[in-house]
Structures are given as C-alpha cells and as structure tokens.
C-alpha cells in the first residue's frame, strides 16, 4: 500500500482517502434522499450508534462491543425493512444516472446517423393540452426518454396506440374509465393509460400542489422522464423534469420546454426564459 502521510500512530494511504471520500459521498447522497422525511432521524440515529460502536471497538471494551455488535447485525436487517422505499429510490437514482450515461454514449455513437432519436409529434399533445386547459380537464402525460417505463406502464392499462389528439381527449374525459392516473407516451406512441407513478416526498413542494403534481415531480426524481400536468382546478399547465416543476406555462413555453427536455436541447437557455414560473425543489 502506498503510504501518504502519518499522524502520530495513524498511517494514512491513498486507499484510506478514497475510502473516506466514497463513504462521505454515499452518506451525503443518502442524507439528501431522506432529507425532509421521518426516516432521516432514524438514519442519523443509526449513524451515531455505528460511530459509538467503532469507538467502543477501538478502545477494546469487549462486553459493550459484543452487545453493540449483536445490535448492529440485527440493525442492518431492520434498516432494510424500515427503509424499503428509500433503498428502492436510492437504487432507482443510481439506475437513472447509469441509463443517462448509457444514452449519452449511444447518442455520441449515433451522431450524424439519421434516426438516432425518434421524432415525437408534439402537435396532438399541444392541441389537446390547450383543450384540457380551457375545459379544466385534469391530465397527466409522461414522456419516456431512455427508459420505456415498463414497470409504471404495467401498473395501468397497456394501449400501444398511435398518438392522436382525439385519443388523448377521449382518455382524459372526466367520465372515461381511463382518465384516472397517468398516460405514458413512449417512442411516439401512447403506451398505457391509468398508470400509477411514484409520489414525491419533497417538503419544498408548494402546498397548493396536490397529488397529481406531486406524482409528476416524483417520477422525474427517479427517472429521466418529462411529465406534463394540466390542473383540473385551475386549468394551469406545468411540466416536471429532473425533480423540478415549471408552471403557468403558455402554449409557446409548453412547446419549447417539451422540446428542450425531451431532446436535451438548449436546456440551459430554456431555464432562463423570462416569465416562466420555475420552482426549485432541490
Ligand atoms: N400516484 C399517482 N399516479 C398517477 N396519478 C395520480 C397519482 N396520484 C394522483 N393522481 C391523479 O391525480 C388526481 C388527483 O389529483 P389532485 O386533485 O389530488 O392533485 P392536484 O395536483 O391538486 O391537481 P389538480 O390541480 O388537477 O386538482 C387523481 O384523480 C389521479 O388521476
């Protein structure tokens, strides 16, 4: 092992630095994920007990070490049961960044080749959203990017139908059996309707945003999907992406936001477009 430096009797190597760095990143990511939820208190409690266990172990207190050791063994199992949802979110977050990197590599290789990315026809979406907004019809439309979102599509009814204004209007009509939940659009087709998507637990989401908006934000926290929301209450149109929500959008904002987020095009410029109400939830 390559020795880096020594502080009294402790020798520190590059591996130790890397080890500390990786553990700090994992703890920070976990804390960020749990922040605002009840689980954060349990997480901090476990961290304290573990730190205490390490001190007891290093100081050679055998009896206390063996008691705490037993507790830590059961504690790991208990943590898996207690944090089921958070662990799933954490793994989904890792999966999200991995699939984004894969798509970057794919895009890089497909540069210049025609048909690298399927072109989505935005006209039926913009036209139907205009009608939903004018008639105060609630709608939740998910656009998949690198993942087909099969898991979420299967929570609803699979349609695999051509994307059209008429079909979108028929689905979200208040007396339609498919109007509840989200529609998933993937590869330019309506994959499924009545889908259940994960609800965000972010406590920075304004109180006036209900479950429809929370679910839209929630899905974009764990996938790279873009979600369009029409409020049943106000007719207002919002777009959620990457855990953030952009609201009170007009027709041209909707078009430009959808374009920039779905095709990762001019994302930064779109961020700075004036008059767009943007809620930073991070
Ligand atoms: N987890 C979910 N997945 C998919 N759809 C959901 C989910 N939770 C709620 N919804 C949809 O949102 C509707 C309820 O919306 P709610 O009124 O609570 O939200 P909201 O954000 O206040 O929207 P609105 O402004 O339209 O009232 C449900 O009827 C359902 O269609």
TrEMBL record:
GO terms for molecular function: adenylate cyclase activity; ATP binding; diadenylate cyclase activity. It catalyses: 2 ATP = 3',3'-c-di-AMP + 2 diphosphate. One of its GO terms (biological process) is cAMP biosynthetic process. Keywords: ATP-binding, Cell inner membrane, Cell membrane, Membrane, Nucleotide-binding, Nucleotidyltransferase, Transferase, Transmembrane, Transmembrane helix. The keyword Nucleotide-binding applies. The chain crosses the membrane at residues 6-31, 38-55, 67-83. SUPFAM superfamilies: YojJ-like (SSF143597). InterPro entries: C-di-AMP_synthase, CdaA, CdaA_N, DisA, DNA_integrity_DisA_N_sf, DNA_integrity_scan_DisA_N. It is an enzyme of class 2 (transferase). The keyword Transmembrane helix applies. Residues 84-251 form the DAC domain. Belongs to the adenylate cyclase family. DacA/CdaA subfamily. Catalyzes the condensation of 2 ATP molecules into cyclic di-AMP (c-di-AMP), a second messenger used to regulate differing processes in different bacteria. Probably a homodimer. NCBIfam families: diadenylate cyclase CdaA. This is Diadenylate cyclase. The gene is dacA.
């Amino acid at each position: 092992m390559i020795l880096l430096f020594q502080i009294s009797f402790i020798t520190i190597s590059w591996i130790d630095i890397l080890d500390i760095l990786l553990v700090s990143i994992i703890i920070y990511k976990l804390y960020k994920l749990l922040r605002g939820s009840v689980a954060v208190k349990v997480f901090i409690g476990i961290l304290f007990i573990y730190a205490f266990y390490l001190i007891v172990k290093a100081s050679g207190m055998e009896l206390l070490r063996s008691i705490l050791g037993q507790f830590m063994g059961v504690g790991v199992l208990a943590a898996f049961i207690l944090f089921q949802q958070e662990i799933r979110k954490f793994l989904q977050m890792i999966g999200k960044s991995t699939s984004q990197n894969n798509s970057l590599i794919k895009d890089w290789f497909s540069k210049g080749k025609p048909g690298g990315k399927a072109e989505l026809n935005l006209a039926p979406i913009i036209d139907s959203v205009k009608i939903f907004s004018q008639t105060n019809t609630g709608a939740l439309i998910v656009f998949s990017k690198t993942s087909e979102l099969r898991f979420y599509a299967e929570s609803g009814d699979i349609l695999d139908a051509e994307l059209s204004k008429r079909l979108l209007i028929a689905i979200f009509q208040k007396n339609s059996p498919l109007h509840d939940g989200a529609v998933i659009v993937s590869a330019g087709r309506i994959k499924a309707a009545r889908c259940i998507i994960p609800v965000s637990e972010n406590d920075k989401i304004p109180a006036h945003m209900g479950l429809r908006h929370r679910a839209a934000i929630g899905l974009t926290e764990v996938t790279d999907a873009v979600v369009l929301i029409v409020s049943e209450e106000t007719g207002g149109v919002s777009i959620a992406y990457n855990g953030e929500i952009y609201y009170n959008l007009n027709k041209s904002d909707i078009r430009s936001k959808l374009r920039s987020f779905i095709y990762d095009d001019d994302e930064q410029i779109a961020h700075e477009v004036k008059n767009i109400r943007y809620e930073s939830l991070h």
